[in-house]
Amino acid sequence: MNRKSIIVIALLLVGAIGGFFLHKDYSYRQEHGQVTAVDLFSFEQEVDNVQDTKPVLIYFYRQEKNAPGDEAQMEVVEKFAWRNAHDVKVVKVNVAHLENLPVALAHGAVRVPSFVFVSQGKHVNGQNGAAADYNELKRLYGLVKNQP
After folding, report:
1. How far is Cα 58 from Cα 36, in angstroms, rounded to an integer?
2. Does pTM surpass 0.90?
3. How many Cβ atoms are within 10 Å of 147's Cβ, its own excluded?
4. Which residues in the chain belong to E strands, given as ranges?
5. Which H or E run includes 87?
6. What distance in Å separates the CA atoms of residue 107 and residue 39, rounded to the nearest whole number?
7. Sheet harboring 56-61: ordered strands across?
8. CA gap 81, 20 in Å, rounded
9. DSSP 47
10. Which residues does residue 58 pair with via DSSP β-bridges, in sequence order?
11. Is the peptide bond before 68 cis (omega within 30 degrees of 0)?
């Protein structure tokens, strides 16, 4: 084998290994990088049982019919969930359903949209009633992660 063939084989091997890991990461994000809808009855399973292993972002919202602000905020939350799939679980709670109001009140979400990070019994609340951008969600995540 000459030098050129060895270089081509090495590049193909590196490309194949890199492609394998990219596919594996993409598959993980497809499964864990989504926003999970929860309610009063699934809250314990999706949030309380997970918060000891990784932080959970709870997004409290009120479903309005085709409201552009709601759609824009959901895009920000979905982007955060996708980019931080390995580190954070993201759930959404629709407070338009009356059974979800006790969950919202228990976490201090008195106005919507509200963002609450929970991790190992610690809570970090965002500003109630104010939309959050990606950087604000990262800031709140940093606060819950760095709490003693």
Report:
1. 10
2. no
3. 12
4. 35-38, 56-61, 89-94, 114-119, 122-125
5. none
6. 13
7. 35-38, 89-94, 56-61, 114-119, 122-125
8. 22
9. I
10. 91, 116
11. no
